[in-house]
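Colleagues,

For the teaching module next term, I've prepared a clean inverse folding example: a structure given as tokens, and then the sequence designed for it. I'd like students to try predicting residues themselves before seeing the answer, so please don't circulate the second half yet.
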């Protein structure tokens, strides 16, 4: 590209040396102190291929996105691991907590077993919100194709319910509709209802954006767009270098752009809840 545009080319070794200048910048970003309060944390993972010990191996890229007290989204951190195991997630969450992440109110993720166990262990006082998009796929996968369009509409009505009682009523209606036709789908729905509707504990204005991992999924698409060009990273260091540079850039856009939420209503809601609880206790 430089040869075509500028009439000068660079060797691979020169490009490599230049790229390595990113390493201290990315290291500083990954180890920075998290000084704000992040009540909402959205978590996801994707897999990339990298060469390691003369073999091509699948690597898990663990990413945490936080919604800060000032209403902006931030990349809290990322980690390249051998797998998406409970141990890997525990290590990742421990590193976030060492850097200052605390008092998380809501964690949003899919239903990966290792991830869910690590969330329960590391964020004991937080509510876990199971991603509704992933949950819908889980229910639909257990449903005959002829029933899927109607079920998809009913699930949307359940998710959009104004309160938990209305959502439960719709859930019961869905179970009645599926009775004798999709017993496995009913099992998934009944088992996952409380977790998938956990977001109902928040004020209405915050629910839609926090009921799925869609915001971080769009970030994953940006990562995939660049990863597809490379296909196989030459080593793990190059994964950290490229993805780290991308995430720093995204973090800067989010933190200097429009607010994702106006958090004043949320903190007023928390204050009112504490006041009511103290009043009842007294």
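(Answer key — instructors only)
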């Amino acid at each position: 590209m430089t040869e075509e545009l500028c009439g000068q080319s660079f060797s691979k070794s020169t490009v490599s040396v230049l790229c390595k200048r990113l390493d201290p910048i990315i290291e500083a970003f990954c180890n920075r102190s998290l000084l704000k309060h992040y009540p909402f944390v959205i978590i996801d993972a994707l897999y990339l291929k990298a060469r390691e010990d003369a073999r091509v191996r699948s690597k898990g890229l663990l990413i945490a996105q936080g919604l800060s007290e000032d209403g902006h989204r931030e990349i809290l951190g990322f980690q390249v691991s051998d797998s998406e195991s409970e141990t890997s997630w525990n290590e990742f969450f421990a590193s976030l907590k060492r850097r200052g992440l605390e008092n998380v109110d809501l964690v949003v993720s899919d239903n990966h077993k290792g991830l869910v166990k690590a969330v329960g262990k590391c964020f004991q006082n937080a509510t876990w919100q199971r991603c509704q998009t992933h949950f819908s796929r889980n229910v639909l996968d257990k449903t005959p194709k002829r029933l899927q369009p109607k079920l998809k509409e009913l699930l949307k009505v359940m998710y959009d319910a104004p309160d938990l009682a209305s959502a439960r009523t719709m859930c019961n209606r869905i179970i009645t509709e599926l009775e004798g036709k999709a017993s496995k789908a009913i099992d998934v729905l009944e088992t996952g209802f409380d977790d998938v509707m956990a977001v109902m504990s928040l004020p209405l204005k915050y629910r839609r954006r926090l009921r799925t991992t869609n915001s971080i999924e769009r970030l994953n698409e940006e990562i995939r767009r660049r990863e597809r060009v490379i296909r196989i990273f030459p080593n793990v260091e190059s994964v950290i270098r490229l993805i780290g540079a991308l995430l720093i850039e995204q973090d800067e856009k989010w933190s200097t752009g429009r607010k994702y939420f106006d958090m004043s209503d949320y903190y007023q809601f928390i204050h009112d809840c504490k006041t009511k609880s103290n009043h009842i206790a007294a």
